[in-house]
């Protein structure tokens, strides 16, 4: 076990943990987006309420949810550890021109912190309410479901809440812009032949996914 702890406490090991947890969270974003887009269906929230019920009652999905929370914590803890270690080993930064790196790569710590604050805000407003808050029920085909759509609809009826969500998605876009390509590079998938493709996919993902997330509260607010 000594080699295991030595590896994951090394610079390469810490970056590997960041890459793997980051890619897992990227995958989670896609799944989460697919579910949330059902909020835009013109069915009074039926599809979203059934989806939310499945997410909270299926044992496999619940396990994946706990894994996701673990990955978020690991990503945050390792990011703090990596940042502190880098500052300790190199208290004076390299004299590198800003032109050699992107704005998002130089500010990943700030972006990550803002995203973490948004996650706490978001989980308190929805996840906590979903599990322990008083929620009305609605009936579909003779079965009762908690009306989580009404909770979301009420939240996005407020301009301030919608604005916070949209701004947070813009911050997420910058975080993903650097994080996507950096994760592949850490895993050794760095080749002249494939780099343009990875960069294109990364940029497209960083724009499209946050934009679709932001579209949901905007449409619901306007409606």
UniProtKB/TrEMBL annotation:
Write out the entry's keywords from A to Z: Membrane, Transmembrane, Transmembrane helix
Alphabetized InterPro entries for the sequence: Cytochrome_b-558, SQR/QFR_C/D
Gene3D superfamilies xrefs: Fumarate reductase/succinate dehydrogenase, transmembrane subunit
**Family matches, as CDD domains:** SQR_TypeB_2_TM
**Which residue ranges traverse the bilayer?**
16-39, 59-81, 108-128, 158-177, 197-222
NCBIfam families assigned to the protein according to its UniProt record, in alphabetical order: sdhC_b558_fam (TIGR02046)
Q: What is this protein called?
A: Succinate dehydrogenase cytochrome b subunit
């Amino acid at each position: 076990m000594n080699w295991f702890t030595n590896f994951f406490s090394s610079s390469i090991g810490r970056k590997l943990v960041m890459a793997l947890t980051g890619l897992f969270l990227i995958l989670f974003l896609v799944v989460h987006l697919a579910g949330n887009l059902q909020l835009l269906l013109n069915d009074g929230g039926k599809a979203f309420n059934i989806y939310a019920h499945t997410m909270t009652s299926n044992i496999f999905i619940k396990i994946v949810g706990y894994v996701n929370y673990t990955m978020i914590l690991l990503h945050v803890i390792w990011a703090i550890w990596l940042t502190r270690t880098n500052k300790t080993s190199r208290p004076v930064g390299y004299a590198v021109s800003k032109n050699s790196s992107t704005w998002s790569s130089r500010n990943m710590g700030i972006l990550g912190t803002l995203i973490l604050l948004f996650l706490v805000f978001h989980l308190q407003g929805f996840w906590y309410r979903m599990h322990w808050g008083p929620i009305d029920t609605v009936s579909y085909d003779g079965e009762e479901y908690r009306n989580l759509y009404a909770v979301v609809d009420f939240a996005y009826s407020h301009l301030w809440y919608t604005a916070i969500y949209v701004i947070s998605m813009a911050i997420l876009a910058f975080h993903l812009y650097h994080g996507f390509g950096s994760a592949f590079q850490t895993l050794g998938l760095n080749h002249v032949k494939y780099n343009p493709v990875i960069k294109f996919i990364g940029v497209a993902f960083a724009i499209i996914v946050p934009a679709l997330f932001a579209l949901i509260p905007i449409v619901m607010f306007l409606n």
